[in-house]
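## Example record

The block below lists the input lines for one assembly entry, exactly as stored, with component labels intact.
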Amino acid sequence: MTLAEISSNLLYVAFLAYLIATFVFGGAVKGNKEGSFKSEGRWGKIAFIITVVGFLSHFGYFITRWTATGHPPLSNMFEFTTAFGMTLVGGFIILYLLYKTPVLGMIVLPVALLIIAFASMFPSEVSPLIPALQTNWLAIHVSTVVIAEGILAISAGAGLVYLLKVVDMNKKSKQRFWLEAIMYSLVLVIGFVIASSFFSLTGYQSDFSYVNKDGNESTITYNMPALVGMNEYTSLTDGTMEPFFETPAVVNASKVTTVLWSVFVGTILYWLIRLVARRRIAAIFKPFVKNVSLQLMDEINYRAVIIGFPLFTLGALIFAMIWAQIAWSRFWGWDPKEVWALITWLFYAAYLHLRLGKGWQGEKSAWLGVVGFAIIMFNLVAVNLIIAGLHSYA
Amino acid sequence: MEKMQCKCGHVNPPGTILCESCGRSLTEEEQNKKLADMRYEGTARRSQTYNKSIIDKIWNFFSSVKVGVSIIVLLLIAAAIGTILPQAQYVNVPVRNDETIKAYYADVYGEIGKIYHFLGFHDLYSSAWFIILVGMLAISLIVASLDRFVPLYRSLKNQRVLRHRSFMDKQRIYAEGPAPEDAMLKAEEKLKELKYKVTLDKNGLLAEKGRFSRWGPYVNHIGLIIFLFGVMLRMMPGFYVDETLWIREGETRAIPDAPGYFLESKNFTMETYTGEGDEAKFEEAIDRVGSVAKNYQTDIVLYQTPDESLPGATDDMEQVKEHAIKVNQPLKFDGYAVYQMDFRQNELKAMTFDLTNKETEESLGSFTIDLVNPEKSYDLGDDTRVDLLGYYPDFSGFENGEPQTETPVPNNPGFLVRMFTPETPDGEVSFIVIQNTIEPLGENDYKLTFQTAETRDVSGLTIRKDRTLPILGLGGLIFMIGVAQGMYFNHRRFWIQKQEDGELVLAGHTNKNWFGLKKDLDQVSGFAALPPYVDQQEEIEKQEKLKKEQKLEGDELS
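Predicted structure tokens for the full assembly:
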């Protein structure tokens, strides 16, 4: 086995371990029918050990890949997102050691699983560094950012647990709608993973030529049946699906197609789950969170921001500016990724002022934590894939 | 408003809630509260005290957290809007001016692009309203900090060991009861062991730890203000240089905005990954995307002319250093930095032509035109010469019969020549561009045939000097220190008093992390046998919860 193969096998092991740990955590917090929760401690501990094993394996992936490529594996979408999954679990481990909260594992680990699965939909072969990335600042800047974001995501995890407990799923309300919307968007990620895996396993490919926004002829390969066509497209592959309609040149219809397939599959999956469970997804989690201490979740939510915010400032703004000054000759250039890092920072600054100055604790704080995670994910996914900029490495 | 004299004799600034010295409640509202409002030590914040003049109103506006957060949120939304479409600086247009950029947004993004441009969002971050918003944030940072810091500092400086009983029993952590004779002494000993600063006065004790953490928020705000000040300084001339220098291999050029410095380009290199040898592991990735750049590099020599030499004189310049400018490895000298930013490969340097007879195809000799410094005339001997009447480095077509050049860069050189030979002593006029010859004054006997061209690479370098960087760095550092100071440390205090009847009264307060405070107190209590304490906040919450439950039960019964 080559080092690169060992590396990807370690990642599989980590994925499996997290998957198992999720269910053991779930079992631990659900308890038995009599409502006694003696098992929580014991099963929680076992689940935690499995999580740690998974994390070590994940870390092993990181180190072996670093050795194999000769540069820190933080240089493209696959590598960064995989590392984000790792720091998310790492953040959970730290907070578990502080607060012993199995329920947090039940929420955070599935999110980490989704993130790793999402990551593996991107090209994962080892790739060389372009000149701008050939510096130690890659390791310094990106690792600080990814650790900070992992910890900030824990804040959202604790917030989500808080909301799952506190929001009444039997009464119509804005809260119920938005909480379910969060669940739905998580299912959409599964939809994306299923759709991409299905079409990549079946080897679907379809080439089109089109006219790009500069007016030049260009070609593109769709890896999913084309629902939406590029500007003035012509199909180059026989026997493949013809798009339903054409889009203007600024739209990357291939990406739109991927999004539509993900939404399509995800929505079917969502309604399947709802039909089988006969209730909203958020309501499925109710029995798992009935034993949760709201005060503790609020504390974790806040504590994670307290740790994550300074780290994020350091990594995503200060180190980023130093590197930008060295590589691009200016410390700040209003590149979309930079702007969204600033937006994230401003958001958490507002969170802290509202919490400390206006007494926004509990449910309000929980919602803010979740919104913060949404902004981080937007910066990771949308800014990389939709808004073109200097940081679009994937 | 008048100054407020407390019963203890201390004169407090108008608007004070808790006496700075003894802690008595000074307002009726405060007297009726179960727990003292300790947020700013019950001090008189200017914003809470005055609201008459216009200055008061402005001050109060900017000192509000609500306003501060609103500005943050507005900035956040504005910043996000600016990423919907690319900013003008990232837009690629052949010729940059307001018209072409406007046209670009309309052409590429349609109606949305037109509206986006119309609203000025294409240059959002340098728009006046965005800068004003940032300015308002800076004012808010300053005003809100001063409004809180000044009275807080006064109060913590003036605090007395002996507090009034009404202050003590309104603290969240409270204890009273009998205690052994040596309890005060032992408590003092233990508190000192726990790194508390202990002050004694008559029958009282004040133990304090981590007061500096109270300054954290103000320190980090100072950091931000310094940073914003640094950003503002860049608008002043002299603080900031941003120039572009295109330099061809073999050229020596003056560095713009760096008087006395010259740069010679020895060589430009661009490498891509081969996917062979050491790089074999990257083969798959390279195949997928076609090619991956490995290195952009300009080898340069830096020269400096002595101070006494005339501006622009290059005869006596001295070599300062040699350097390979790469991405991430700028050339640095005298506060300047020169970056590898761009390149053009294979720019035409010189073209060689033969003067040939059209019929016999016999050559009368060849000559080379340097495309940067072309000569006026090329003499081939024997009454044969070629005069260069006009040179158009980047020929773009004719306008009113005149050849035009779009740029001074030799991308598509055009030459208007007059050819003299013994046979045609009056000369024949010809216009030559690559692959094409026009004979404007009628059929010629002779023509210029293209032989070879020399090319070279051009490096696009950026020259920067930014004297604000140390200021920005200082701001960032102070911000981080302030954040750590305020977030990871907390200000804990205990007041212990021995009553006349021998019983002890104890109160404890911290600005955050009550768990930590209680842990400290547990240790002290255990060691000195202090009376057991209660968390009055939790008591109140418990009672409220109980009331709620009772009410619910009552509702169910009725």
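Chain B touches chain A through 54 residues (CB under 8 Å). The CA atoms of residues 354 and 366 of chain B lie 4 Å apart.
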